[in-house]
Write a structure and sequence with these properties.
Blueprint (H helix, E strand, L loop, with lengths): L2 E4 H6 L1 H9 L4 E5 L2 E6 L10 H9 L6 H17 L2
Parallel strand pairs: 1-2
Antiparallel strand pairs: 2-3
Length: 83
Amino acid sequence: MARNITQRALRNDSGEIMRALDAGESFIVTRNGVPAAELRPIERRRFVATSTVCKSVASLARIEARRFFADITRHLDQRLRHV
């Protein structure tokens, strides 16, 4: 859950806030008591080795491309009819 901080606290305590962001904490910055912005850590990309991905993909069920695309087309056609 995000912690509320004032614009002044953001300016005066930026180092502490940056350390909290590094630790995964989020903030709602308020100006005159009104929420103005959200500060949250950026999700870091996780490295996955190519060999791990290949092993995972190898264990997936095979699909028939023609049937797969027909299913997608049918689904999209249904959604477009309801718009």
